[in-house]
Amino acid sequence: MKNTTTISLADCQSQKDHRKIKINRVGVKGLKYPIEVRDKNFESQHTVATVSLMVDLPHHFKGTHMSRFVEVLNSHGRMVHVSNVFSIVHELQKKLHAETAHIILEFPYFIEKKAPVTGSKGLVDYWVRFEAAAYLNETDFVMWVTVPVTTLCPCSKAISERGAHNQRGYVSVALRFNHTIWIEDVIEMVESSASSPIYSLLKRPDEKYVTEQAFDNPVFVEDLVRNVALRFNANQDIFWYRIEAENMESIHNHAAYACVEKGELP
């Protein structure tokens, strides 16, 4: 077997390409990576992220060096928060000679919640997405959080002699902000805008409580996004948001949807 350390290996990615088409994003997707995320109540928590790393590619290069993306990620350790993701994208720019670089991390985030009456503890999972990008010397960061909630239909309550239909809804919010905002605080703002929060563990007294709480707080999907928007508007650190709500209707074979967006994109 030949000793490859003494042989010059072909660098196909650096070969010239004559089609004169720039690629906006190229890199790796679907990379599973253990990370440690800052936690408001317990300092940090460990989870597993699905990672995408991408850069732009000038028209005269045939390809990019895929191994360098993983090298950069590994070199920055496992702790991930708003401030250190920018060091990753800047290192991608430098190592891959790129003008723009992107990192996307998607991961489950867990919060221990107590049932409202018995105090029984259970973990609820939320979906979180960090997107960081560098454009030459400019940077951008967006945090996405998807929160499951309970919603009860105001119309059904108003027209029915007995009960009202309710369903699970999902609120997905994207935020740009000036100072760090805790994931837990975003979740609390969303849950308090719905008919009732979601819990993983409920005993009978708890189930009675949340059922009646939802009945006393009916919201259309339109009410839901507006309620969240009011809470975001009251936070001076949030300068852009997008709020999407989708109710998995219990009496229809379709979902109800609403979206509201505010702020100028950078």
Topology readout:
Elements: E1 23-39, E2 43-57, H1 66-75, E3 79-80, H2 85-96, E4 100-114, E5 121-135, E6 138-152, H3 154-159, E7 166-177, H4 183-191, E8 196-197, H5 204-216, H6 221-233, E9 238-248, E10 255-262
Parallel strand pairs: 1-3
Antiparallel strand pairs: 1-2, 2-4, 4-5, 5-6, 6-7, 6-8, 7-9, 9-10
Helix pairs in contact: 1-2
Keywords: Hydrolase
EC number: 3.5.4.16
Protein name: GTP cyclohydrolase FolE2
Write down how many β-strands occur, each being a DSSP E stretch of 2 or more residues: 10
Q: CATH homologous superfamily - what is it?
A: Urate Oxidase
Mean pLDDT: 91
Q: Please state the CA-atom Rg, rounded to the nearest Å.
A: 23 Å
Number of helices: 6
- The fraction of residues assigned to DSSP E strands is 35-45%
Shape: elongated
Q: Give the second-level CATH assignment, the architecture.
A: Roll
Class computed from helices, strands and strand pairing: alpha+beta
Spans of at least 5 consecutive residues with low confidence: none
Kindly report the CATH topology: Urate Oxidase
The span between the termini is 55 Å
Function: Converts GTP to 7,8-dihydroneopterin triphosphate.
Keywords: Hydrolase
Catalytic activity: GTP + H2O = 7,8-dihydroneopterin 3'-triphosphate + formate + H(+)
GO molecular function: GTP cyclohydrolase I activity
Write structural notes for this entry:
Pfam families: GCHY-1 (PF02649). Converts GTP to 7,8-dihydroneopterin triphosphate. Its EC number is 3.5.4.16. This is GTP cyclohydrolase FolE2. It is a single chain. The protein is an alpha+beta fold. The protein has one domain: Roll (Urate Oxidase). Helices cover 24% and strands 42% of the residues. The protein has six helices and ten strands, in the order ββαβαβββαβαβααββ. Strands 1, 2, 3, 4, 5, 6, 7, 8, 9 and 10 form a ten-stranded mixed sheet that branches. It is elongated, with a radius of gyration of 23 Å.
